[in-house]
Amino acid sequence: MWSQSRAATPPAAQSGGTITVWDPVVRLFHWLVVAGVTTNMFLNEEGKPVHRWVGYAVLLAVLVRVIWGVAGSAHARFADFIPMPSRLWSYGKSLLARREPRYIGHNPAAAVMMVTLILLLVLCGVTGWMQGLDAFWGMLWVQDVHKAAAYTILALAGVHVLAAIRESVRHRENLIWSMITGRKRAPSGSDIDHAPASGRG
Ligand code: HEM
Ligand code: HEM
């Protein structure tokens, strides 16, 4: 497919042994989603206009991210990180043995979490929108699904942050800072990079 050839698109400059992994669209998407979910869960009154517009903004961010997953930079593309079951299985085994390799993009377990979170965000946004439609007026299941999606996102986000901290310690790098700057330590040794031409030079 396109992934390897498109990985050779103009690479970012290398500096101090780091490379650009997460482009600005990925980073902006991530922190907008975090802000939107957090404010809708804890600050914005449920169902009120601010809550609805923030929810739509999250949906829009997800839509842009999905397009970017096909057309974006090398590590942003779904083709770079959606794992084959076999790769997920072997990563799972190495994780249990505490010998998991370092990935430059999302590792297979992280990729499953990313896709699950994105699907739940869509479910939450769509069921929020459905609550305002005459066709679904007063249907309790729509509210229930909306609520369940929101609280599952919250729970999985907790696991996701703990996993990011664990991987940061394991591979001696700050993955959270990388999601802010976009940069990670350049690959070496047994590190796995599915888009080796990206982010360098
Ligand atoms: C990031 C996306 C969103 C999150 C995390 C979120 C989260 C929540 C939460 C936690 C509740 C309270 C549920 C409960 O305890 O009963 C709620 C309620 C509600 N949300 Fe959202 N929401 C999102 C998007 C939306 C959108 C896009 C809309 C509409 C356009 C919407 C409309 C509503 C309405 C009408 C309620 C009140 C439901 C009820 O009466 O129980 N939400 N939302
Ligand atoms: C509502 C809360 C959150 C949601 C829904 C969420 C969702 C996501 C998604 C969808 C990605 C994939 C990014 C992409 O490829 O576009 C991601 C990556 C990431 N997120 Fe979050 N996130 C949340 C909170 C956080 C928080 C609070 C932190 C850190 C304090 C964090 C740290 C990271 C890191 C480090 C990555 C990259 C992981 C890797 O290197 O594979 N996330 N997150």
What distance separates the N and C termini? 24 Å
Oligomer, anyone? single chain
Specify the overall morphology: elongated
- The computed structural class is mainly alpha
CATH level-3 fold name: Fumarate Reductase Cytochrome B subunit
Q: Number of folding domains?
A: 1
Placed side by side, the strands forming the largest sheet appear as 1-2
Biggest sheet statistics: 2 strands, antiparallel
Which small-molecule species are bound to the chains here? protoporphyrin IX containing FE
Extended strand count: 2
Description:
The two termini are 24 Å apart. 61% of the residues lie in helices and 3% in strands. A two-stranded antiparallel ribbon has the order 1-2. The protein has a single domain (17-185), classed as Transmembrane di-heme cytochromes, Chain C (Fumarate Reductase Cytochrome B subunit). The protein is elongated, with a radius of gyration of 18 Å. It is mainly alpha-helical and 201 residues long. The chain contains eight helices and two strands; from the N terminus they run H-E-H-H-H-H-H-H-H-E. The structure holds protoporphyrin IX containing FE (2 copies). One protoporphyrin IX containing FE binds next to helix 2, helix 6, helix 7 and helix 8.
